[in-house]
Amino acid sequence: MIECLSESCLRSQFSIRLNCLAKYTHSSNDDSSMIYSRLTPAVLIPFQIIMLLIPCTFFAQMSYADDSELANSVNFTQDIRPLLSNTCFKCHGPDEHTRFADLRLDTPEGATADLGGYRAIVAGDPDSSEAMQRILSNDPELMMPPPDSGRELSRQQKEQFAKWISSGANYEQHWSFKPIKSPPVPTSEEADGNPTHPIDAFIRRRLESLQLTPSQEADSSTLIRRVSLDLIGLPPTAEEAKNYLSSESPDKYMELVDRLLASPHYGEKWGRHWLDQ
């Protein structure tokens, strides 16, 4: 669409300039206008070709640059794992009943195993990787995915796969299998004290990176209304608000949160999100 609009704009500008030239020559004398009218076809065709080639060349270069940038930023989780899952795991995945050629591509051990003189993936060497050779093959008997699967890889996907192998064919572990561990809590460089909760420390670090100042803590009447609506979907009653505002306990906010979490209304509100699926 952009290319077509660019060509249209260029051709329109060229036509406007020719019209201006025509008016100028007509105002001069009849001889010059006759010359102009005779030369117009000869002049117009080459210029039209040039005008059409300029945007084509520009957008071709831009498209190539974009593809190159994508190929140079390959992420296993975002780019390679979905590619393997959609095109390879059905025949070369964890299910031994549907597996072909005794090849597994869902694990690094299976993908790099010796299969009798060749390996599906040779880390760092796409040219020696049988999988890469099959992907690039034009032979219907050898090419992967098979032609009848209807899942042919795009040029960009092939480039990403080759780039991934060249960079070491690293298999990143799925997040669900990684051990749970707490990240280090960032410390704030501000002099107004430490955040009251570790989550606030992460928010503070992000605000500092954006050179933003944290908002002031909300007053008690605002806090009880916000947390009540967030957790149980109902505003606090007048009596609940009165008791909260009159409380002098330093832990009254956390006590309020615990009470709301123990309320049946909490289950009703958040269970509805699952029941509506």
Describe this structure in words.
- The protein has twelve helices and no strands.
- The chain is mostly helical and 277 residues long.
- It folds into four domains: 2-71; 76-171, no CATH class; 184-215, no CATH class; 220-275, no CATH class.
- The radius of gyration is 34 Å and the shape is elongated.
SSE layout and pairing:
Elements: H1 2-28, H2 30-71, H3 76-87, H4 89-92, H5 108-111, H6 130-136, H7 155-166, H8 198-209, H9 220-232, H10 238-246, H11 252-261, H12 264-275
Helix pairs in contact: 1-2, 3-7, 9-11
How much of the residues is beta strand, in percent?
A: under 5%
SS-derived structural category? mainly alpha
How would you spell out the order of helices and strands?
HHHHHHHHHHHH
Number of domains: 4
pLDDT averaged residue by residue? 78
Overall form: elongated
For this structure, the quaternary state is single chain
Q: Kindly report how far apart the N and C termini lie.
A: 38 Å
Rg over C-alpha atoms, rounded to the nearest angstrom = 34 Å
The low-confidence runs, each spanning 5 or more residues with pLDDT under 50, are: 1-18, 20-39, 55-71
Q: How many helical stretches? A: 12
Largest sheet: none
How many distinct beta strands?
0
Helix content: 55-70%
